[in-house]
Amino acid sequence: MDNLWDTNAAAGFGDDVALRVYSSRLLGRDKSLVLHGGGNTSVKVAQPNAFGETEDILYVKGSGWDLETIAAAGFSPVRLDHLKRLAQLPALPDPAMVNELVTHLTRASAPVPSIEAILHAILPYKFVDHTHADAVVTVTNTEGGEARIRKIYGDAVVVIPYVMPGFDLARACAQEFARQAGPQTIGMVLMNHGIFSFGASARESYDRMIDLVGRAEDYLKHHHAWDIDWTAAAPKADAALTLAKLRKDVSDAAGFPLVVARQADVRSMAFAKRPDIATISQQGPATPDHVIRTKRLPLLGRHVAAYAAAYRAYFAAHEPLAQERKTILDVAPRVILDAELGLCTVGRSAKDANVIAEIYAHTMDIIARATALGGYRALPAQDIFEVEYWDLEQAKLKKGGQAPAFAGEVALVTGAASGIGKACVDALLARGAAVVGLDLNPAITNLYRRADFLGIPCDVTEEAQLKNALARTADAYGGLDMLVLNAGIFPGGCRIDALKTEEWRRVMSVNLDANLVLMREAHPFLKLAPRHGRVVIIGSKNVPAPGPGAAAYSASKSALNQLARVAALEWGGDGIRVNSLHPNAVFDTGIWTDAVLASRAAHYGMTVEDYKRNNVLRTEVTSRDVAELAAEMCGSLFAKTTGAQLPVDGGNDRVI
Ligand SMILES: [Zn+2]
Fold first, then answer.
1. Residue 582 in contact with residue 646, Cβ under 8 Å?
2. For residue 400, pLDDT beyond 70
3. Three-state SS for 313?
4. Nearest one of 64, 57, 36 to 101, comparing CA atoms
5. Which is catalytic among the residues 311, 553, 604, 611?
6. Max CA-CA distance within the chain?
7. How far does the centroid of ligand 1 lie from the alpha carbon of residue 194, in Å?
C-alpha cells in the first residue's frame, strides 16, 4: 500500500478544509481503497456564525461527489452539536435522518451530506477517513473474519459487527466505540463493509489509513492469499452475435434497452472459468453499497430467463420482512460471468456498464483472495436486500427522471470524423445512445474520450475492416440498434465523355458497394435490437434532381436509394425501419473551404450569403440540421415510417 502524501503538494492546501480536500483525493486516487462514490471523509472545524458566536461544524463528503475529484464545495457543513444529539436518539428512520442533516447545514447550496455523517460526528477526532479497502473487505468476508481482524490489529482498532449503513450503524458505533476505544485506538473496522481511520491532522488520519490497510495486505501475503495466478485459455472468437443475443435477452428481461460491455482480459476469463465459480460467485457483493450497481449476484452463463425468475423469488422472499412495501427493480442481471465470453457488465449507459466492470474487477480479486485464505463469505441475502431496497434508494426510483430517448441503445455512423457524420454522432450522443464512429481519418479514434463513444479508423470499402468494426461494437456495447450510412465521396465535376472507368468504380465502391456490405453484415445485429433496428441513409438531392457533371455521384446515390427501398421491403418483417434523407448544399463541411465557397458563389454571380441560401425557403442548411433529422428518424416520431425519402434542402424547385 503506497503512501501518496506529498509534503510539497500538501503545502499548497492552506486551511483544514483544503487539507481535507487534498487527502480525500489521495484516497480516491487509489481504486483499491474506494470505487466510484464509495467511502467518505470529514473534518471538524470551529467557525463563527452570523452572530459572531463560534460553532463546531462537521464538513462531511456530500452525496454525488467522488473522493478522487472532490472540491471544497463537495463537503457539506453540518452543525456538529445537532448531529451528536441525534446520535443519542433511540431510533430515527433514515429519511427523517437525512431531513435532519439537510436542515442543519450552514450553507444552503451544499450537497446532501453523506448518510454516514452522524457516524463521523460521534468519532472524537478532527479528521476522519472511511474507505472500503479491498484488503480489509477481503479479510472480513471470510470464515472467522472477525478473529483474523483482531489478530491483525490487536487493540489498534475498534471492531463493529455488520450493521446496515445509516442511523442504526451510527448508533451501534457510538456504543461500541465507547466500550472498546482507548488511547491506542487509531481506526475502526466495520465487518463486511470497510474501515475508518482518524487523527488530529489530515496527514495523521491518512497515514493511519495506509498503515492499517497495509497490515491487512501483509496478512494476505503472509497467508499466500495475495498473488493470484490468473491464466486462462483464449476467449471465444466470433462472439459478436452471441453478445447481441445476450443483450437482447437482458434488455427484454429489464423491459428497456441496456448496454452490455464485455471484458475478455486474462483475469475475467480465468475467473469465469474457475471450477468453483458456481459457489464463489454466488455469495454476494464485497461491500453492501456495490449492490446498487451490481445487484446481489451475477448471472452465470447466458440463461437470462432463469436469472430473472430467481431474482423475482429473491424479492418475494425478502420483501415481506421489510417495514415498508417495496417496488421491485428490473429483473435483469448487471454482471454476467460466462466461460466463453468472460465478464459482461450491463448498464443503462456505457458509463454505467464500465463502472460496474471496474467494481467487479476488484470483486474478482477480493473473492479469489478470500477463497485462498479459507473461503469467501458475503453477508446473508437479507442484509444485501435491505441495502438494495433501502428507503432512500426507493425514493430516488419514484422520483425517476426521464431517461434520454436512446438510453441503452447503440448507433454506428460512417464518415463520422467531420461534417454531417460528426453532427450525427453528436445528435445521437445527446439522445443518450452509445455511438461507434467509423472514418478513414485516424483522428476518429480521439474524436471524443468518453465511455459512450468508440472511434474506429476504417476503410469502408474493405469488407474485413467492416466486420472487425461490428465485432468491436459488440464487444464494447453488446450490439447495434441504429445504423447511419453517411460516408461518401463527391469527386470534382466531370462529364460522361471524360469519365474514367476507374473513377466511376471508385465512386461506386465507396458510395454504394460499401453500404451493401455494411447493411448485410449489420442485419443480424439490427434484427436483435431490443426496440427494433433503424437504418438512416444520407442520400442526396441528386437522387431526385441530378445535375450535369456528376454522373458517378448521382448514379451511386440513386442506386443506394434503391438499395434502401429494397431493404425497407425485405427487413420490415424484422421490424427494421430504413429511411433516407436527401440533403443539399450543406456548406459547413470539410470540402467547402471559404475559398471554394467564394469561387462557386462568384461562378453564379452571387454573394456567398445568397449562394448559401439559394433555395425556396432562403435558409441555410447546416450539418446539424441534417443530423438532427437523421436522429429523429431513429426515434419514436418515425416509429411507423419505413422506405421514406425526406428532403432537407430548404426547398428545391426541381425536387418540388
Ligand atoms: Zn461505507
1. yes
2. no
3. helix
4. 57
5. 553
6. 98
7. 6
